[in-house]
Write the structure tokens for this entry.
Amino acid sequence: MTQNSDLYENAAAERINGILKQEFMIDRFDKSRETIKVLVKQSVDLYNEKRPHLSNYLLTPHQMPKQNKIKFKTFKKQ
């Protein structure tokens, strides 16, 4: 999932893997590769479009950058 063996990229990849396994239980499906791809896509869409996040003041990740009242958090070096 990471391209440059960057520690920050690896942390993001591990976070995503953890969410898919713990919250969406993707690893519990004994399905074909194509079915798993569909489940992962649906999970990511749900996570980004429908699920409010406390760290985003109960906005979804999709809504957060579109608003202008709350400062957008970033964890990358600027």
Remarks:
- Residues 7-66 form one domain.
- The helical segments are 7-22, 33-49.
